[in-house]
Design a protein that fits this description.
Layout lengths: L4 H31 L29 H4 L10 H4 L7 H6 L11 E14 L2 E14 L7 E4 L8 E4 L5 E5 L17 E6 L11 H8 L1 E3 L9 H4 L2 E6 L6 E6 L5 H10 L8 H32 L2 H9 L1 E5 L17 E3 L3 E2 L2 E2 L1
Parallel strand pairs: 1-6, 10-13
Antiparallel strand pairs: 1-2, 2-10, 3-4, 3-7, 5-6, 8-9, 11-12
Protein name: Protein HEAT INTOLERANT 4-like
Keywords: Coiled coil
InterPro entries: HIT4
Amino acid sequence: MPMRKGAKRKRVQKDKEDEAKASSSSQENHKQESTKAPTRAKSVKASKPQPEPEYFEDKRNLEDLWKEAFPVGTEWDQLDSVYQFNWNFSNLEDAFEEGGILHGKKVYLFGCTEPQLVPYKDEQKVICIPAVVAITSPFPPSDKIGINSVQRESEEIVPMKQMKMDWVPYIPLENRESQVDRLKSQIFILSCTQRRSALRLLKIDRVKKYEYCLPYFYHPFKEDELEQSTEVQIIFPAEPKPVFCEFDWELDELEEFTDNLIKEEELSEDQKDAFKEFVKEKVREAKKANREARESRKKALAEMSEETKKAYENMRFYKFYPVETPDTPDISKVKAPFINRYYGKAHEVF
C-alpha cells in the first residue's frame, strides 16, 4: 500500500529531531567529563621480599624411645628436671639398625635415672641423668617389681600390675598410623599408667612406693645375694628411739653384740632380753627365706625346658647413656655398668 506524502514528510522531520537530541546529549556528557578532576594514578606497591623457606629436620624413627621407657624409681617431683635437657639417645636408636647390637632381636627396655655431680656451663651441678636398660630376651625378663629402701623395714616383691606397670609394645614413629594389632613388635617398654595428676588422691605411703621401685629380675642359674647373705637388718622398736643395726649370725655373737649396744647407749639395760629375742626371730625368718629361695630355685630349674634354659643363658643386659652434645652436661666420667641390685651389672655400657 503506497505511503501518503504527508506521513513521509512527518517521519523525516521526526528522524532529524531525534538526531539533534542525540548530538546535544553527547556534547553535554563530554562537557561533564571534561570538568571532572583528573583521577590520580594508583601507586604500585613494592612487593615484600619472600622469607626463606624453613627446613625442619625429620624426626628420627625411634627418637622418643628413651622418653617412652618409664624411669622407674625416679621421684615424681624430679621427673620434669629429667626432661629439661634435650638428651640425645641416637646410640640406642643406632643399636636397632642393621649391624647394631639389638638389630633383629626381641628387646625389653626400662628407664632409670642417676643423680650425679657433673660439669655444666663452667660449674658443677647435680643433674638427674637418664639411662635406658635394654634386655635381649624371647620373653619378658620379669613381671614383678621390687620395692625397697633404707627407710622401709622389709623388701617387697610385687606384681608389676599392682603398681600400674607393664611391658607394652613400642610403636616406631613411622608406624604410628598403622593398626597396632597388625604389627609384630620386637621392642617392648616398661610403661606406667599412674597419672601424676592423680597422685594427690593417693596416700603418701603409696606415692613413696613408686620412688622405691626397682625392676625385678631373678636369674635361676645364679644364687641370689640374699640367699648367700648371713646378715639381717634390725630395726628394734625401742624407746626413746628405735635401734638400727645389722647382725651377722655367722660373725657376731649375740650376747657380746647386745652388750656393745648398751655400752654405746643405743640400747637400755632393761630392753636387753627383748632385743635378743627380737634378733633371734629375725635370724630365723632370714634363714627360712634363704632355704625356701634355694628350694624354689632348684624346683624351677628341674621343671624348666631346655629352650627356656638356653634363653636365660643367652640373655644380655645393655645400658645406654645419652651421647655427648654441645647443649647437654658432660656425663662421660659418671657412666657405670651397675643397673640395680636385682639385675647386677650390664654386659656392655654405651
